[in-house]
Design brief:
Blueprint (H helix, E strand, L loop, with lengths): L5 H22 L7 H24 L7 H4 L3 H22 L7 H27 L1
Length: about 130
């Protein structure tokens, strides 16, 4: 697994936390049962799992926290799909902006955070096997 610095993990944690907050705000705009509502529900769950994993890495605990211990392999597998989707969508959106542009940099930060999340989810999955 990749070794991330505390700075990289802290930045990833900020991005994931912002994403959770933004998704929760957007979710209120959609009726429960709609595709958009379900997509956001799944994305929020994936981001919460990502947040727990990043916090665990930052605290440098090799044992699982109680909350993280309750995350199943199936939930980890399900969490990968929204994380990979965010990476893909951000990369596609990034193509519309010049490198160095504020939007480009914002998307770059989110992509980095999601790549860290993806690696931590995959690592936790193999750890549970």
């Amino acid at each position: 697994m990749d070794n991330y610095t505390d700075e990289e993990l802290s930045e990833a944690l900020r991005e994931v936390s912002k994403t959770i907050s933004n998704c929760e705000k957007m979710q209120k705009k959609f009726a429960e049962g709609t595709a958009q509502y379900s997509l956001l529900r799944n994305r929020i769950k994936a981001m919460v799992i990502s947040k727990l994993l990043i916090e665990s890495e930052l605290s440098q605990k090799n044992q699982m926290t109680e909350e993280l211990g309750q995350v199943t392999k199936e939930e980890l597998i399900e969490a990968l799909r929204p994380v990979v989707s965010v990476i893909s969508k951000c990369q596609k959106a990034q193509e519309k902006f010049a490198e160095g542009n504020a939007h480009y940099r914002r998307l770059e930060n989110l992509i980095k955070a999601m790549k860290i999340s993806k690696a931590l989810i995959e690592n936790r999955f193999t750890w549970l096997e």
